[in-house]
Amino acid sequence: MLDITQDILVVLLIVGGALLFRVILERLWPRDKRREHNDIIGWQLGILGTTYAVILGFMLYTVWTDYGLAELNADAEANAVVNIYRLAEGLPTQQQAEIRQLTRSYADIVVNNDWPAMAHNDTDSLESGKVNQQLWHTLMSVRAASPEQLTAEDHALYELSAMAEHRRIRQLQSTSRLPRILWCVLTFGGIVTVISSCLFGAASAPLHTIQVFCFSLLVSLVLVAIASIDRPFQGTVHVRDAAFRRAQQNMSEQ
User: Fold this and answer.
1) CA 193 to each of CA 18, 44, 50, 60, 204: distance values in angstroms, whole numbers, following the listed order
2) Please, which contacts does 50-58 make with residues 24 or more away whose CB atoms are closer than 8 Å?
3) pLDDT at position 2 over 70
């Protein structure tokens, strides 16, 4: 995963490559000779630009939606942990102490182990799964002696099931990526579209240079944004562990 310095370097390389291609093209095929083909080049650029803009917009919307879902899922998982902690008050004394200790441990492990592991794309090292299993074992060992305890156990099992589901979703989201075929489409489409903008035989060379610079800069920025958001738990733009830190605070105050 690229950091912010590498992202800037990628943008500079793309923009620099586009401007260098324009300079080389100007020597091999001067704009005066290209100008007579402006109708065809303009039509081609219009079709390619519109098609590629739709693809870019759709991809950016898709990864941003997935990022938002990952953020909401992490919040839901943290809320389920806090709810289990609170519901433990209605359980027998022994299980109450065990569940409260386990929920605190779960939040601590998610913050201190799971998040760093996901940042390095290492989902095999998520230690929260062990605590999840211990929570199931403890809750299933409850022998409710009153209606209140039975209700608390039922609700705690529901929240634990939700927590386990959100954890599995988080694990899947941390490894999900745009398919390579879509990255090939984005890369090839960007190259073809930028090249088409360079082919245009503008009357003013400085103005054409500015147009190519702005166009390639926009394309490169969107591609870098897609690459960063595509990995919701990695890179410079990632889902943070703020929800679990709030959960730690809420459980420590009770």
Assistant:
1) 11, 9, 10, 18, 20
2) 51/189, 52/189, 52/190, 52/192, 52/193, 52/219, 55/185, 55/186, 55/189, 56/186, 56/219, 56/222, 56/223, 56/226
3) no
Looking at the structure of the chain, the number of domains it has is 1
CA distance 204 to 224: 30
- Which one-letter amino acid corresponds to residue 224? V
Q: Which domain holds residue 12?
A: 4-252
Which of 237, 248, 208 has the alpha carbon at shortest distance from 32?
A: 208
Residue that the structure tokens 């610079």 belong to? 213
Q: How far is CA 178 from the centre of its chain?
A: 10
pLDDT in tens, 135-187: 999 988 888 778 888 898 899 999 999 999 999 999 999 888 889 999 999 99
